[in-house]
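Deliverable D2.4 — example input (structure tokens):
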């Protein structure tokens, strides 16, 4: 350290022995190395948060009074299965929802059938049943409250929530 302090003030250029200079990657971890790792870890954590948010924000939708998966729903579930295979630490809760038409009891049952349909399809795609749970909210958690078909169609859905 004293050698560096003495040579750094010199007016003449001091030529260093190149074999004695370590490249930055080989330097011992210090505050700067720790900071770089923290930034790297942070960006990985941010990427994972964005992946989780994207996974959870994509829902599947059903026809009126049906629990059969539409082709668009199967495509979404295939994408979700790929993500779940790549991220084995995560479990998924599948939430079944309905529009407001029908009795509360009927809609709870329909929501459960919708959630189970998604679970069964994910299981067929290789996702273990012990990584999945289902719940039905029936008509209790609408995303839209207008009384028209466009709104009703938004409420007939399965949502997906991840947990570790």
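Example output (designed residues):
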């Amino acid at each position: 350290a004293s050698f560096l302090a003495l040579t750094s003030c010199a007016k003449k250029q001091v030529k260093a022995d190149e074999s004695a200079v370590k490249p930055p990657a080989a330097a011992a971890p210090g505050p700067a190395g720790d900071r770089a790792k923290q930034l790297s870890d942070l960006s990985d954590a941010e990427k994972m948060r964005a992946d989780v948010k994207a996974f959870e924000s994509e829902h599947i939708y059903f026809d009126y009074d049906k629990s059969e998966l539409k082709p668009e729903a199967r495509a979404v579930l295939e994408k979700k299965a790929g993500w779940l295979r790549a991220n084995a630490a995560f479990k998924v809760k599948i939430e079944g929802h309905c529009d407001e038409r029908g009795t509360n009891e009927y809609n709870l049952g329909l929501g459960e059938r919708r959630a189970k349909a998604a679970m069964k399809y994910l299981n067929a795609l290789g996702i273990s049943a012990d990584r999945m749970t289902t719940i039905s909210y029936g008509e209790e958690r609408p995303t839209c409250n207008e009384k028209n078909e466009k709104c009703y169609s938004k409420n007939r859905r399965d949502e997906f929530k991840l947990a570790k």
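The two ends are 48 Å apart (CA to CA).
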